Structures are given as structure tokens and as C-alpha cells.
Amino acid sequence: MLASSYKDEDGHISVSGSGAAAAAGGGSLRNKKPENTAFKQQRLPAWQPILTAGTVLPAFFIIGLIFIPIGIGLYVTSNNIKEIEIDYTGVDMSSPCFNCSQNFSWNSTKSCTCSIPFQLDQPYESNVFMYYGLSNFYQNHRRYVKSRDDSQLNGNEESLRSPSKECEPYARHDNKPIAPCGAIANSMFNDTLELFYNDPNGTKVQVPLTATEIAWWTDKHVKFRNPGGEGSDLAAAFQGTTKPVNWRRPVYELDSDPNNNGFINEDFIVWMRTAALPTFRKLYRIIQRRNNLLPTLPRGNYTLEVVYNYPVRSFEGRKRMILSTISWMGGKNPFLGIAYITVGSICFLLGIVLLIIHHKYGNRNNGADVSH
Amino acid sequence: MTVLKDIPEKWFPVVLPIQKKKKTGFGGKQSKKKRTEEERKVKANDREHNEKFQYASNCIMTSKYNILTFLPVNLFEQFQEVANTYFLFLLILQLIPQISSLSWFTTIVPLALVLSITAVKDATDDYFRHKSDNQVNNRQSQVLIRGSLQNEKWMNVKVGDIIKLENNQFVAADLLLLSSTEPHGLCYIETAELDGETNMKVRQSVSVTAELGDPNNLVSFDGEVVCEPPNNKLDRFCGTLYWHDKKYPLSNQNMLLRGCVLRNTEACYGLVIFAGPDTKLMQNSGRTKFKRTSIDRLMNTLVLWIFGFLVCMGLILAVGNAVWEQEVGSLFQSYLPWDPPVDNFLFSAFLSFWSYIIILNTVVPISLYVSVEVIRLGHSYFINWDRRMFCSQCNTAAEARTTTLNEELGQVEYIFSDKTGTLTQNIMSFNKCSIYGQTYGEVMDTLGKKPKRLDFTPFNPLADPDFRFYDEKLLESVKVGDSHTHEFFRLLSLCHTVMSEEKSEGELVYKAQSPDEGALVTAARNFGFVFRSRTPGTITTTEMGRTVVYSLLAILDFNNIRKRMSVIVRNPEGKIRLYCKGADTVVLERLHSCNQELISITSDHLNEYAADGLRTLALAYRELSEDEWEAWSESHRCADKATDCREDRLAAAYDKIEQDMMLLGATAIEDKLQEGVQETIALLSLANIKIWVLTGDKQETAVNIGYSCKMLTDDMTEVFIISGHTVQSVRQELRRARERMIELSRAKDEGTKGWAEARFMGNGLKDGQEKDGRTGEGSKQLNSPCGDMDNISGEFALIISGHSLAHALEADMESEFVLTACACKAVICCRVTPLQKAQVVELIKKHKNAVTLAIGDGANDVSMIKSAHIGVGISGQEGIQAVLASDYSFAQFRFLQRLLLVHGRWSYLRMCRFLCYFFYKNFAFTMVHFWFGFFCGFSAQTVYDQYFITLYNIVYTSLPVLAMGVFDQDVPDHRSLEYPKLYEPGQLNLLFNKKEFFICIAQGIYTSVVLFFVPYAVLSNATQINGVPLADYQTFAVTTATALVIVVSVQIALDTGFWTIFNHMFVWGSVGSYFTIMFALHSQTLFRIFPNQFHFVGSAQNTLLQPVVWLTIALATAICVVPVLAFRFLKLDLKPQLSDTVRYTQLVRQKRRKPGGRSMGGAWRGTGSVSEGRLGARGGSRRSGYAFSHQEGFGELITSGKNMRLSSLALANFASKHSSSWIETLRRKKNTHTPPNTSGECSPAPSNMSGTGPALSNSSSVLGGSQETSIEEESNTAVELSSSSHPATLEVNESKASAPDSSTSAAATTDSSGGWTLSLETVQETPFDQRGFARASYSSDPPCDARELPHPHTK
């Protein structure tokens, strides 16, 4: 380090007078005086906010005054939403689905059906949304989440033939690639739910359920695509692949509608959109409003007919069916309203408390005389 | 990334294969050497012979890499950083698919970025090192090879070579001086680069080799030198030269060390003894230590803690995973079978542990280190750019040479300062003088006008144009011919050891041993008493335009004990006079008792000068009669020839003659302080920074400077001086000092308030106990008498000399020393070696948990600069060594206040705020995963998209916090200089410590809880407007991520106190970039190209179009921010810090639009000046100012004629021949004319003058007249009347006394003021008249002598 440090002989000269040297060198000696810019001299114009009573206290009051009305609005809206939830897992002996839930395995070919009667106390106006809900189902497990091949689902031929390693152990079966591969697809929810309105006059009227428009537009149109392109023969496209182990039908037989079949089957897409939490609900069907004069679902008795295929008892899971109306802010969500009201009130109270503290003990006023 | 500045020692073999073998004792570690060198044998002119020993060559390598080794070595080095290795480890973990919870690029992108930035930086650094190495190594030197001088590069110079050095060349290696062009083998060197002393030193070769002279003879020189192995002792060399079967002892006096510069010597020849890394310079350079700031260390500790925390979280989650897999996962296998290698829950838990380590590692993101470096770099640039730290005289801007220490500048508690060149400019200026009771130089500028600098040129063509003096009265007095004034300056022109060089007529260059002497002789020169040249026996001066040759009879040389020097000269008139100058204490007690009154006046003046921090000297003379001289001369000769106790005898002889002197006056030399030193020191001590001065100078000098820069004041309760030579005495002195302190402070406390003392005592007891616990048993008894040392009230100062310091630094003494020294307000260590400087710094580092800063400008400060936490180099006159070793450099000491109080404070503040926020934001970010773990089966599923995880730290949140870290200001710069107390939080480490860290962490965890559970609660049931549930993973991820980005942005907005355009840009830009990038990554286009990489297609738009999501984000933000806001407001409102208050007042003022800042500043400045006034109050203590950095024996050199150059010698010979004959005649005449005087008589004997020669004849009558007693008495009374005389009255008296001559003298003075343009006749005449005049005025002295005369007789 040190050795590198000798000053050159001529260095001695230049020290003595920069002016002379500069003149002699024809301005070769650069004036090293730093530039006088606001940036370099750290004099940039700046806004210097400071937490004073004049700014903080009003902020609290304003937050309070904004949050409380929003909370009230949300709460009221949420309360106006009608929702009914029916657990059809069949844990209890008394439950209609108890039998179905008991003797079940993935491979049984004969379907087990159970019907659950229920009652709507209020008529459901406008569109009604039918969900199935699962509990204790870990769709958010890391190994589960990654066990898919988005490239395959996007209709990539190569991925169709050789699914990604992520799909293991559901990538190949019987030496054939599985389409769709992976644990998610393999465990697709396959109960069939049907809804019947028990007319007071005794007839059972099936409530028409729409199976489309239940997935994200982007999923349906971008993320999921069948191999072979539009309009081609799905069975041919999927030739050489095999169905997921747990499935009863191959993927190209999910629906009769060619626009809702194969990878772009919306039930499939909905299932593939994994849930964030172990208890979740997924949109199953939409009950469209037919008649503007009549409620979509009038009050009365209904029957839920379930083709019980999906085993959840083994891991202590629960299955539910939910019917819900909707508002501008979505489904029923009491928490948001309450939370807003609470936070708003706390802010407001805090504002008052701080105001009192400030007036009683505030140190701000004598700040002007600073001692050294 | 923190970069290792120097390669750890163990890598030397790898890095520097060449250096390995020459690493002999480099840095003191010799164990690795193959063979420990015990003695060195060097044979001159015999390369083959010397090669056997494999001595290091003269090539110096400070660089670390070459092109080939750069990549592997640099990477290797970088991976020695724990952090980098850690990230590499994480990267490897991620490659295991069962563990990988993140994609590989989340780690590799930042890591690669960091590594490459660091590599580029290292490469640049090393490139410059290469360049400077090459430059040094390729310097040319002339080597005597095979009989002829050949140009060789420095690096090719070998041990045993003989090289030729020319004037002003750097010495290439440690040389044994063989011969020089100067007589007696003398040569002069400047050792500024080595030890910081600017005065020249003399080196002399062994006489046998000195005779060799030129290369032709040197070729055959085959002497062998056997000497000590390489070491770092600059002032010691021990060896023997064997030549022609004879032994010649060698000492340091024969050595030229690398780093010195040859001066005033045409050329010299030297034998290379030590080369390259073995040279004393390199040996002294020590090992560069890698400096870390305390924040760095704290950060590293915290990072370790966080790692611990990380492992804990990993363990918790792994246990959770085990439980979950057993309880739930095993049942869930029908849907989610275990991965193939996993066969039980324990193994799954093990894997899960590592997976969680990977995803939770972002609590300590790699970007932390990068950001810290970037911020420091920014701060360094601000330092470099600061115009207020730019010195326009030397065109030097401040430079932050290290970019890793900035925030530590805000925490400094101890400053160790060099004196010469740091506090002072090392320029001595003749500032004031007191001549015969009249003080000059005190120029009042009541109107604030700058006093006019005196222009000497019309008066004196030989004047030095650089000389500055402002008091016109003195020049008037000279012109008028005041005899005292003339004698005063005559003394200055005669009594010194300065050498002169007159290149052309009138162009005088003085070569002074010490700058003080130079200043005095220059002053005399400008006032008309020009010292022209000297020979061993004569001194030629030009007095008021007339050349006078004095014969030099004796030089009574200076030494430390005598503290004075005298010359005995015989003037052309044949009168013998002793001129003495010396420390006032010494001189004043040797005066004739008739001086009593004058002494008291002069003492007052001396005190005044000393109080102003000037170095003072008292001047006196004595007339000697021929007999006296003869008698003394005999005894002197005896003493000189004595073989035993020569020194003592000489001193006694000197003592004998330096008696009964007549006081002439006193000089006051200003050791010019650098600009603003006083203010800076005052300001820094207001900021609670303790300043220690460590100097190689003498005690007197150091103390004087201490006073002049107001470190020491007369108000101080007591100043302790430790100067013991033995361990016991030092220990005793330290103890005594401490006891005295306690005693005094007790007395003071009792005097003030009883309760305060009680409190002090209480604290003291507690402190004492604490200290006991800390320092261990050994120091217990030490502390017992001084338990309350920390609470000493009253101001004390400690002055310790080098030899005492050596004892004080011994292991068992050091705590005692620290205890005493730290209780003092000011500490001055004088006569310390470079190594001791470093030791003192190390001592404080060891015993006080405080940040130290060392500031210096010379090579002798290098070790201190390197060992202190922060080293500051003054890029001054003393070379560039210190600057190169330093961390910061600038041109003037006063910039230190800005460096510390402005830049340091800001840096510290910014760094602390940065770190607080950084840990906060990463905890807020990462801990969400922890909470999510409980809901996803502890499967190490991330909450966020992997791209978000990659980009969060390097894109979304880095810039706002960087902007804050770089630009934030709590108070503007001038405020922090106005309120030095603002510096205290840094010293107390208040802004970022463990407590603050935990608060940040807690806040981060709180935020993470909110960020997870609010979306959890809201989204689990919420649906989109079209009924699609929002609880899918991707929506949840986007919501949480968005909420996180918004919350941390709001938080940084709250933290930012200084919103420049950049802050706005970065804060808004980050939020904007988050949305932009997210939409881009979730776009269909990217998905279509890489369907397997972008799973989140469409999530952004689907999520962010939902009002519920925004309501959730707003809710989460409010819950996160409101408590912080309330807490901060309360803190600010109830317990505002000083900075808050200052900031607030600033705001109020800005609102009022009043330039109130000025009045504020004025107020402060007012107090400053008040305190200055108080400090400047004259105290009663007298301080000796005799402060020559003098070496003994120079007088001897002069009288022996050894140091006379040939040319000047020849000239002088001629002059002396002439003069000696002249003097001979004088002597003869005197002997015939005058009767022998009584030995006790000290009156000037003008009677001798009567026959001095034809030239004097016309004034002889006047002189004779002045002998008349009546006039003597008359003038005597006149003098007594005007005791504190005004020159005018004196003048009147004198002109009365010399009535017959008054008209001519008046004419002469007027003429002389008009310039030396008179005809030769008048020129000849005028000085004589003046001299006569002077003589006449001198006659005011003798009567008193005459009055005193009877005493010796009566006795």
C-alpha cells in the first residue's frame, strides 16, 4: 500500500501554486472544485413533512369518517345477501349421504346417489350461484400446487406426449402420458349436484343450472386450450394419452358441448384454479334468472340430488353445497363491514385521545427555544 | 457487498507467490518464513554472493490479482463473505427438487448481480494498485553495475548494489551512505514521508568510505555489512562494516531510508541494505486492516440472530410439517402422495425444514448488503462533492477513500490528532515582539479593516517578500535607529544556526534546522539585519545596508536542558558580546538584577503572547571584556577536551558565562494554526468529542499548540504533566493525578451543591462496580481509589511524554492510564513514535467502547490512521503517505467539523433509518409465509408469485429506501453545525441498536400478521362480482403482494423526512413499477411464449378489478399504519428529540418566511465568540515557549565547518582571511589601547571603539561623547521615567543625548526610508551614523550597570 504512494517529484511543484501551474499548463490542471449543483451539494429542494398535531389528528378523524360509512355500507350490503350452505358429506348416521360416504372407493363403477331436502326461507332474487365447498382439502399444498403442466393444459402437443416432471407421480400411467397430468387434475371434484324445486303442488321441478361462465375468462380462453386447435376431433387429439388414474372418463368426454370439453371444460378449469386455503368453495353452476317477475329461486322446499363420487371421509374432509346471491361487492362477507366499522371507530377515538394528550401534555409549543 | 480490502494472510501463497518469499516479517509475522533472518550480511558489489541469502528484491507488490488469477481469486474471496456463501448454499439447496420451494432464479439473479458489481469494483481497485505499483517499481535509479553507472528500474535494484542518488530524489531503498559530494560524506535528507518532520536531517557516511568519493573508487569497494534483520524501528540501526580487515560500527546516522528525499546535496552513493518489503518504510506500514463500522458489526450480529430466528421458524414449521403429515398428510395421500424419496413424516419434515429455510431467507436478503454499499457509496460521493470541504488554495476536494465507513463518522467519540501539518500549518511566523518593554505587533483593527501588510522592499532590497508583519511602529523604530531595536534584530541575525545560500546577489535562501529559527532570522532580515553567510569563524551580515562581519567566537549550543542557545561574537569594533536567546524561564533568571523593571514588563508581554498561544523566546545579551572572554574561553576549551562528563562540563562552562545578561526583549512566533482550527475544536468538543493530540514534537511545542488551539485553557482546573522515566514514577504520577482530580472535584462539588455530589457519588459507585466487573479482577484495586473517575467535575488536562507513554502502555498500566486520561478534557501526548500513536489508539479502542478517529498528515501518522476506526489524512505538505493510508482525506483540519457533524451525522441517520426500514420491510414480507405455513400443511408453499419474491427486494422496494438512505436529512447542514448536540445520538448509538431492531422486527411481524389475516378473513368467503370465489391461490397472492407493496410504500413515505424529487420518483415509481411489472408478467403475451413459466396469467386483472380486493388492501394498510402513526406522533409530541425540535422550528420559520436562521446562527456565533473571549483571557501561568525542534550539535557542525559547502566554504575562506586579518588588527589595536577590564564588568566598553579604525573616525567623537557620565545619567533617568516607554519619548531623549548628531541621523533615517538609493558615500555614512545613534541610545543601559558595578567589588 505504502509503496504506491510516493508523490512524484513534479507533484511537489504543483502543490505550491495551482494558479501558476494552471496557467503554465495552459489550463491542463483541472480545477477540481466540485460543481455547485443542488444535487451535489445536497441542497435539493425538498418537501419536509413533519408529524404535527395539525396534520396527524385530522388524518385520524378523516380516516375514521371515511371508514365508518364504508363499513356500514358493506355491512348492510352483506346482510342483504342471501346464502344457504348445506353439508352433504354424510358424516352423521342420519345424513342421507351417510351410506354413500361409507362404502366408497375411487374405482367403484356404480354410482351412489343421495338426495338432501332443504328449505329456502326467503326467495332468492336475481342470479343465484351454486358452489361446492370442500374443507380440509389442501389444494394449497406446495406439492399439490406445482403438480400440473401448464404447457400441456395450453394444448402443447409435446407436453401432451411427455408431461412435465412436476406431474409425478401422475405423469404417466401404463406407459402412456396422462392428460391432464398431475395431482390437481387427478383429484378433480366429480360429484354431480342437481337441484330440484319441490313445488307446493307436489311436483319436483329441476332447476336449470348453467355450467358455463363459471371460470375466469383468461383461464378459459388463454390458459387452457385443447390440443389440435379449434374444432378438431378431441378424441383424436388426445390419442395416445391416458386419463388420470382417478377419473372415470377421459378428458375429451367431460362434456358433450365441444366448447366445454377437453381442457377447456369449465368444471375442470375451475378445479385447476387451486384454492388458497384448505377450506374453500368453488363455483359450480349458475342459476340464471329467467323471468323478471318471479324470483330465481322462490321460497319453499328443495331437494339437492347428489351423485356421490368424491371421497373426502378418508382425510376427514367435508363437502358442502352453497347457494348464494350476489351484490356489487360479491358474495356475503360480513367481516369486511365489521372490520371497516371497527377500524374507523378506533381511528376516530384515537384522534380524540391524541387530541386530549396533545392539549394536556403536548411539548410542541415550547419547541421554539432550543437549547444548545 | 462489503469487500475485503486486503487479502487474508492465509491466501498470500495463492495470491502472491512472489510475495511469499519476501514476506519476511511483513507485519510482524515471521513464523511462516522458511528461515527467520537473524542477521543480514550484505557484500557490496557482489550480486552472486548476496543472492545466496534470497533477500527480498526492491519490487513492491500491493495489488492482489493478475488477469489470470482475478476470477478464481476474486470469487473465492467473495465467497468468503459469509453472506455470499450462504446464498450460494441456498442456491444449491434450491437445485434439489424435493426441497426447492422457489425457482432457482429468485436467488441466482440477485447473487449474480451482487457478485459482478463487487468484482467490477475490486478489479478497478486492483487496476489502480497495479498502476501505482508499476509507477513506483519502474522509477529509475542509477546503479553501479560492473564499474559503470546504469539506469535501472527500482524493482531491479538488489541488496548489495551501490546506487547513486541525486538531489531531490527519493531514496529507493534503505541505503548505507557511502559517500557524497559534500565534504566529510555529509548529506541532507528530508524525512517527511517517514516521520513527518519537515526539517532537514544530516547523515554522514563512515569516514573511510567517504573518502572513496566517485564511482571509480566505489567499484572496488567490497566491504561487507553485517547488521540487524529488517525491522520497523526508524530511529535505530545497528551494524558493522567489515572492510580491509577492519571493523567500522554503523549507526542510524549512516543510513538513508527509503521514503526520504535527498536535499541540498548534489549526489551521494549508498549501498542497498534493505530492499522492497524489508525497508523500514514498508515494515512500518503495517498490515492494512479491514475496517468495519460498528453498525456493520451490529448488522452482522443481527444477521446472525436472524439466522437463528430463521432456523427457529424452520424448526417450528418442520415440526408442524411432521405433525401435519402424520395427522393429515398421510390420510390425504390418495390425493397427494408423498414424493418418491419421502417415506415417512420425519423425512418430510426434514425436507420441509430446508424448504422453509429457502423461502424464509428473505428476512436477510442479499440486497441488504448491496444496498448498504450503494448508500455508503452515495454518501462518499457527497463527501467528494462537497464544496465546503474543498480547499481552493491547494485545489483539493475532500475525498472519501473508503466507502465503507461513512456512518461511523456520525459516531466518533475520540479524535486523535497529529499536530504538525494537521492542527498547524507548520509555518512559523514572526508575530509579535517586545523590545525593551515596548510591545510590537499588536495591531488593532477596531474598524474591522484588515491591517495593512508592511512593505519592506523600499526600505530593504534584501527583504524576503513572503514575510508578513503589520505593525508599522516597529519599522519606524528601526528606521529611527532605536538602539534596542537594532540590537534586538542584530541578536536575531547572529544568534542562530541557520545556513544561508545566496545563489545570486540578494537572493537569499535560509536553511534552518527549525522553522522557528528561520522565522526569526527572516524577521531580522526584513528589518534590515540581513544574515548573509557564515563560515566556521565568521558571520557576515548586512546591517541597515552595510556589510558587517562578526567573528564568531563560540556557539553555546542548544539542548533540551539548557533551553537556550548563545553565540559569542566579536564585532568589527572588536567588542565581544554574548547573545542569548532561550526559553523565558531560563533566560529571565540569568539576567542582571538591574533588569528588574524591564523583566516585569517583558514578563507581562510574554504572558500575553503565551496566552495567545504564541511561542515565545526571551532575548538577552552581555558585553564581555577581553579578559572575561579569554578566561572563559580557556575553561571552555578545558571542558571541551575533557574525556569524561564532557557534556556536563560544557554545560557548566556555558552556564558560567550566560550570567548577568541584559534583557533585550522577547519574540513571539506564531506556529500558524490552520484556518479554523480553534472553532473546529470548540465545536467538536461541544459535540462531546474528545480530542487527543499525539505529536512527535517536544512537550513545550505541543503544550503551546494546545493553548493556541484552545484545547488547554488557563481556566482548566489543573494540567497534569506525566514525564516519569520509570514504570514506578509513571504509575505514581498517574495515581497522583487521579487523586488530585478526585480531591479537586470533591472540593468543587462541595463548594457547589451537596446533593449533586451525593448523586455523583452514587453514580460513581455504580460505575465503579460495573467497571470492576468488566475489566476483571486485576484492575480491581486500581479502580478502588478512583471509583468515581467518570464523574470528575472540573476540567483537567493531561500531558504525557513519549517515554512515560511507553510505560503507561504496558499491559498492567494501561487501564490506569486510560482511567486517568479519559477523565481529562484534553490529552496531549508528545514525543511519541508512530507506533505509540497506534498503540494509544488501540488502547482506547480496547478499553472504551467508542469510535475513534485519527487525523494526521505525515507518514508518521500512518499507523495511527490505520489502527483507528476512521483514519483521516490531511492532504497537506508532508507528502501523501497519510492520505493513502487514510479513509478520508481533505486539505484542512477545519473540514473535520463538516465531515463529522454534517456528513457523518447524516450518514449515520440515513443508515440507521435505512436499516430499520429494511429489516421491517423484509420481515413484513417474509413472515407472511410463516403464517401461511399453518394453512398449507407446512408445505413451504409461498404466498406470493415467485417473480414477486425475486423482484420485491431488488425492484419494488429497493429504490425508495435507497433514496431515503442517500438523500434523507432531518435537519439541514448548517443546523447541525449550529447545534453540535445533535451529534450525540450517534455517539450513544441511539438510532439503531438492538432495541430499535426489535421494534422494527416487531413492527414487521405485526404487519405480516395483518397482511396475511386480513386477506384471509376477507377473501375466504368473498367472491367476484360474477360470483367466482376470490379465495383461489393466485388472487390471494396478488392481493397480499399488492397490500404489502402499498403498506411498505406508505411506511417509507412516513419514514422519509426529506422528499426530494428522487424520493418522489422512487416511491411513486416503485408502486407504479409494481403494477406495471405485475400486469406484464400476468399478461397473455408472456404466457403464450412460456406457458410453463407464467402461471399467473390474468390474475392481476381479475383480482385488481374487484372492489373487495381494494377494500381489503385499504383495510390492511390502515391497520398497519394507524398504530405507527399514533405512536410516532405521541413520541414526537411528548418526547421530542433535539433534531425534531430543530426541524420543527425550521418548519415554523419557513412558514413565517423569515430568514430567522441567520439570527440563530448569529446567536450561536455570538456564544462562540464569547467563549473565545473567555478562553483568551490572560491567565497567570507562564509557559515556556522555547520550542525549537532543534537538534543538539548543530552548532558544533558549524564551528567545525563540516557542514559548509565547498563553494560557500571557499567564499567564506576568502572572507575570513580578509576579516580575520581585519580582526587581527583590531585585536592588536585593542590590546595596545585598552587597559584590561575588571572581570565583573559587563558594561559595553565603547572606549574600545575609539580606535577602531579610520572609517569610524568621524563618529568617534559622538561615541566618545556618549561616554560622559552626565549624559548617561540623564538618559538613564529619562529611561526610567518612560519605563514602559513610548518610542517617541525615548527617541526624544536619545536625540537629546546625541544632540550634535541629531540632524544627520534624522536625515539618514528619512533617506533610508526612501530607499537605498543614496550615493556610496552616504550609504557608508548613514549606517555609521545610525550605529552611532544606536550606540548612543545604548548608553541608557550602562549607567545601571555602572550603578550595579560596585557589587562585585564589595563582594
UniProtKB/TrEMBL annotation, chain A:
Any one Gene Ontology BP term: phospholipid translocation
Signal sequence annotation: none
GO cellular component annotations of the record: apical plasma membrane; endoplasmic reticulum; Golgi apparatus; transport vesicle membrane
Biased composition (Basic and acidic residues): 158-168
Renumbered residue ranges of the record's region Disordered: 148-168
Topology within the bilayer: Multi-pass membrane protein
Matches recorded under Pfam families: CDC50 (PF03381)
Subcellular localization(s) per the UniProt record: Apical cell membrane; Cytoplasmic vesicle, Secretory vesicle membrane; Golgi apparatus; Membrane
Source organism, top-level taxon: Eukaryota
Bilayer-crossing regions: 50-76, 335-357
Keywords from the UniProt entry: Cell membrane, Cytoplasmic vesicle, Disulfide bond, Glycoprotein, Golgi apparatus, Lipid transport, Membrane, Transmembrane, Transmembrane helix, Transport
Family as reported in the entry's similarity comment: Belongs to the CDC50/LEM3 family.
Protein's UniProt name: Cell cycle control protein
Annotated organism of origin: Cyprinodon variegatus (Sheepshead minnow)
